[in-house]
Structure formats: C-alpha cells, structure tokens
Write a structure and sequence with these properties.
The complex is a heterodimer. Chain A is built from 16 helices and 17 strands. Chain A is an alpha/beta fold. In chain A, strand 2, helix 2 and strand 3 form a beta-alpha-beta unit. In chain A, helix 12 packs parallel to helix 14. Chain B is an alpha/beta fold. Chain B has a single domain, classed as Aconitase, domain 4 (Alpha-Beta Barrel). In chain B, strands 4-3-2-1-5-6-7 form a 7-stranded mixed beta sheet. Chain B is globular, with a radius of gyration of 15 Å. Classes of the chains: A alpha/beta, B alpha/beta. The complex binds iron/sulfur cluster. Iron/sulfur cluster binds next to helix 4 and helix 11 of chain A.
Chain lengths: 419, 163
C-alpha cells in the first residue's frame, strides 16, 4: 500500500475509503464542538428540519466567549442553547463552568489521537497537539453535522515544519510559532495540514504543543498536528483514557513542502499590529508604552503560562500605567493556580484576575480598549478592532514577555527583567 | 450571470474587518449588515447597494470561523465575492449561506472600483466593461448545487426529507 500522510490516514478512516491528497470525501465526524454560536447552529438545525442530534455522545457544548453573559442578547443566546442541551440530553454540556473550549476539550479527555474533530471556532486546530485532525467550520455546517454526522472535506496537502535545535532560556512555544508565522505569512499554510516535527516539538509539553497547533490557523492551516508520543500517552492516561493508537505520516508519504527552522538562537518575538505575521524580535518593539497587558486565552492561559508570568512578576508591582488582566483558560487551571498561590501572587503584583473564559481576547467584554490605547497580549490575533476600538493597537507575545512589559509599562524583553 | 458594481479591497481582509466581534451578540443578520466592512471602509455599509460585488486580493476572510461574515455581506446586498484567494473557513461558510465566492488571481488589480462587472459562475469568467474577460476555474459541481439550492440549509433539508 502507498505511503500515506497523517491527513490521508485520518480522512481515509473517517470516510471509509482510500483517500488521497486532493480528494473530496464525505467524512464521519468523531467529535463536534460548539460554544456560544450553538445558538446559530440551533437556528440552522431547526431550519433544516433537524430533529435529533445524530449521536449525542459526540457533541460537546459550552459557553466561554461571553461568560457570565455580558448583554441581554448574550443571555438570551445562552438560554436558548441551555434549554436545547437539556431537552436533547447532551451530557457533555459544560455551560459556563468549565472554561475556554480549546482548553476544556483536551483537559476533560474528549480528544484522542486519530480523531476527526470539527468545531465552530477557527482555533479548533488546537486539538492537533494530541494527534487529532481537527478543524474549524461554520455554524450552518455544524447544523448539518448535528443532523447527519457527516461533512465534506478535501484531503489537504501537507506542509511539514521541522523545528530543530532547542529553544533558548526565556524563549517559548509562542515565540517559535510567531517566528514561523512571521516567516511564512498569514496565508503561508493556506488549506494545508501542517505537521510540527523535530527536537523542539519533542521537547515541548502538551501545553506548548497546543500553542503551535492553536496558532497554525493564523497562517491559514486547515489542521496543525503534533504526532502522539509518550507525553501524549501520559496526558491521556491522566484522564483515564486508554492509549488508543499511534498515528503519524508514513515515511515516504508525499508532502508538498518541508521546511526547517533552527530555533537554537531564537529570542522572544512580538507580533505588531494589525496582523499576526508582522513579527519582530522583542528588541525591536521594546520601549513602546502600553496601557493594558493580558495573560490568558486558548493560546496562553494554561497553568505553565501563569507560572511563567508569575515568575517574572513575583514580589514586584506591575506599572501604575498598566492594567494587568489575567484569565486562566479553564476552571481546573484556575483551581490549581489558586491552590499553588499563583493567582494570589499575581493579584499582589496588581493583576485583575478574571473568571475562566475567553476574557478580553475577542473584544466583547472584560477589558476593551479605547481609541489610541495599546495592549500587549498572550492571545493569537491582533487584527484591527479585535480587542475593542479599531483605533487601538494589539501586540502579541509570550506570557513572560507580557509580564515583563506589565512590569515596565512598556514592551520589554523578559530576559532582562528575569531573575 | 451575476452583474454588479465592484468594490475593491486589498489583501488579508479578515473577519474582524468584515464584521467586528463587538457586534456579534446580535443574531440578526440585518443588524449586522449595517456594520459590514466598516473597519475597512466606513462608507461601505451606507453606500453598498443590492447586487454589488466585493473584489479583493489574497486571503480574503482570514481569521475567525464566524459565519456572520458572509451572512452580513449577503444581507448587505452583496451578490458575490471575487478574491485572489480565500481563507478556507470563510470560503466554506460563504457557499453554505449561499454567497458565491470566486477565486481569481488578478481580479483586484484588473478591476476598477465602481465599474460594472459580470460573473458567469458556470462558465468560469468575469466580464469587464472594457470587453476583456478574466477566467477562473468554476466551482466543483456539488458546491454549485449547494449554491443553486440557496445554501446548505435548504440543501440539507432536501437530503433529510429524502431519507
Ligand atoms: S480565547 Fe480567544 S481565540 Fe480562543 S476561543 Fe476564546 S475568543 Fe477565540
């Protein structure tokens, strides 16, 4: 049998036939995630004449974007979905209790290697960190998935990115992926399945790999995958999941492009407004005054991110000029960070600690920016208007860089304030 | 044949520019249409007319999976989007809500803002006022079927009824 890529393997399995790159297949979905936009899904589902969800055990729903409800309209949307989830006996409905979808699904053990997962959110690519083929779709498509359990998908080309060497101290997965996106551009991986391989990926924790997979969509990728290894097994076992199957591209499978990035001399990176590929070394942005610093989101709101930020800030005060906002990505992270004293330490440094959720990431509530203001953020998008006023500016960086910047009141190199 | 007046934009028009997150708690496409593209061109929501065609450069619709982006364009009266390339989720969403999307590499540099253009979806060409034609590869048949049905909702409704 011909050597297959990861994408070909998953989509062959999901469609029940031998699928090759470029084929359009009708694939069976293993897991379907939707958040607040379940309200839109529900509307389309009813318009389609859908009555029952094809397989309730394969649907996960929660609220994370506007929690607790920030407007009456948001509350009405929540209410409609809540009632539907109850009436349909969706057992994997977390309401607003669990946190950001892309943290919650892996954390609660819903994600397994080799699965085909769709979500009504572009950062659904995050689950690739555990070896799933996982991609974002629209609300109407999700309605048709609810009704039929199937979706048409084109088997994508593969772009293999080898991250070689090792990340220097003070440099993180976030810096690595920003550098890659800066070099490849915002459409550099359009429609492709990105495979992250190499020593850097092997050395990263699952949380670090989630940063890579999460942001692969910022260069247009359809999916961004890290092949499962012993760390994946350990992550799954901790969630009571049997290690199900090893999946990776076959040696010799046809990939469209292979690129190598040597990360050994990489330093902290910053994406300047208003596009994610506008990336420079932190030295080139250092000194730019900031009004707000945000640590959180499905990109960098995990425990190790909070630990990294706290290490920079511990015992010191964030600048009086800066509003430092921290939102743990999930309730489990919130509890653990709280029990370890990380949240109280951050609060002593001046941070406002938010409830788990998307927080200010999408510019809906909890920390919007006024015209002329500038924010440095651990999130994944710095588009114009993303965090409030279209005349505000968003810079993207790692938790350490954001924490260092909060300390100084201007964009700062974490290696200089670190102890 | 789709006919309309062209609005021309640059590369990387993202979903926050098409419809900003601050409006998304509103589930009415009509209300959203009043803000469509306002961060890219504040005049657009007021001046866009029924049948107008949006023309853009590379990577149109990059960013979030929000289906409100093509919906807002459609409800503002836009009859098609022609771009050098599309971000994949936007592309799927547009077809699913019944908004034709055409990939044509040099459209943004060849089409002048405000001019009347025509699009033949099945034939795969764009008619310019000068008489010149720009060609594109037509959509796969089953995507045209979804568009012809008026989007994925009516398309799936038929499928479910047929079961
Ligand atoms: S944290 Fe931000 S990027 Fe992630 S799901 Fe929420 S809004 Fe989207």
């Amino acid at each position: 049998m011909a050597a297959k890529t990861f994408a070909e393997k998953v989509l062959s399995h999901a469609s029940g036939k031998e699928a090759s790159t470029g084929d359009i297949v009708t694939a069976r979905i293993d897991l379907a995630m939707s958040h607040e936009n379940s309200a839109l899904v529900l509307k389309a589902f009813q318009e389609m004449g859908g009555k029952e969800i094809w397989d309730r055990s394969k649907v996960v729903m929660l609220f994370d974007h506007r929690v607790p409800a920030n407007t009456v309209k948001a509350a009405e949307g929540h209410k409609a979905v809540r009632e539907f989830a109850k009436a349909s006996s969706i057992s994997n409905f977390y309401d607003l209790r669990a946190g950001v979808c892309h943290q919650v699904l892996p954390e609660k053990g819903h994600v397994l290697p080799g699965m085909l997962i769709v979500g009504t959110d572009s950062h659904t690519t995050t689950y690739g960190a555990l070896g799933a083929f996982s991609t974002g779709i629209g609300a109407t498509e999700m309605a048709s998935v609810w009704a039929t359990g199937e979706l048409w998908l084109k088997v994508p080309d593969t772009l293999r990115l080898s991250l070689s060497g090792s990340l220097p101290l003070g440099t993180t997965a976030k810096d690595a992926i920003l550098r890659v996106i800066g070099d490849l551009g915002a459409d550099g991986a359009d429609y492709q399945c990105v495979e992250f391989v190499g020593q850097v990926v092997d050395a990263l924790s699952i949380a670090g790999r989630m940063v890579l997979s999460n942001m692969s969509v910022e260069m247009g990728a359809k999916a961004g995958v890290c092949f499962p290894d012993a760390k994946t097994d350990e992550f799954l076992l901790a969630r009571g999941k049997a290690v199900n199957r090893k999946i990776a591209s076959d040696p010799g499978a046809t990939v469209r492009q292979m690129l190598e990035f040597d990360m050994s001399r990489l330093g902290p990176q910053v994406a300047k407004p208003h596009s994610v590929d506008n990336v420079v070394a932190v030295e080139e942005a250092a000194g730019i005054p900031i009004d707000q610093a945000f640590i959180g989101s499905c990109t960098n709101g995990r425990l190790e991110d909070l630990i990294e930020a706290e290490r920079v800030l511990r015992g010191r005060q964030a600048s009086q000029q800066v509003r430092l906002i921290v939102a743990p990505a999930s309730r489990d992270i919130y509890i653990e960070a709280s029990e370890r004293g990380i949240l109280s330490s951050l609060a002593r440094s001046g941070a406002v600690i938010l409830n788990p959720g998307c927080g200010p990431c999408l510019g809906a509530h909890e920390g919007l920016l006024a015209p002329g203001e500038r924010c440095i953020s651990t999130t994944n998008r710095n588009f114009k208007g993303r965090m409030g006023s279209p005349e505000a500016e968003v810079y993207l960086a790692s938790p350490a860089t954001v924490a260092a910047s909060a300390l100084k009141g201007e964009i700062a190199d974490p290696r200089e304030v670190n102890r | 044949m789709i006919k309309g007046r062209a609005w021309v934009f640059g590369d990387h028009i993202n979903t926050d520019l098409i419809i900003p997150g601050r409006y998304l708690d509103d589930y009415s496409s009509k209300n959203l249409a009043a803000h469509v593209m306002e961060d890219a061109d504040p005049e657009f929501p007021r001046k866009v007319a029924k049948g107008d065609i949006v023309v853009a450069g590379r990577n149109f619709g990059c960013g979030s999976s929000r289906e409100q982006a093509p919906l807002a364009l459609k409800h503002a009266g836009v009859s098609a989007v022609v771009a050098g390339s599309f971000a994949r989720i936007f592309y799927r969403n547009a077809i699913n809500v019944g908004l034709p999307v055409i990939t044509c590499a040099n459209a943004a540099s060849r089409i002048t803002p405000g001019e009347e253009i025509g699009i033949d979806l099945h034939g795969g060409w764009i008619q310019l006022p000068s008489g010149e034609r720009l060609s594109f590869s037509p959509l796969p048949d089953f995507l045209i079927r979804i568009l012809d049905e008026g989007g994925l909702v009516p398309y799936t409704r038929k499928r479910l009824q047929g079961r």
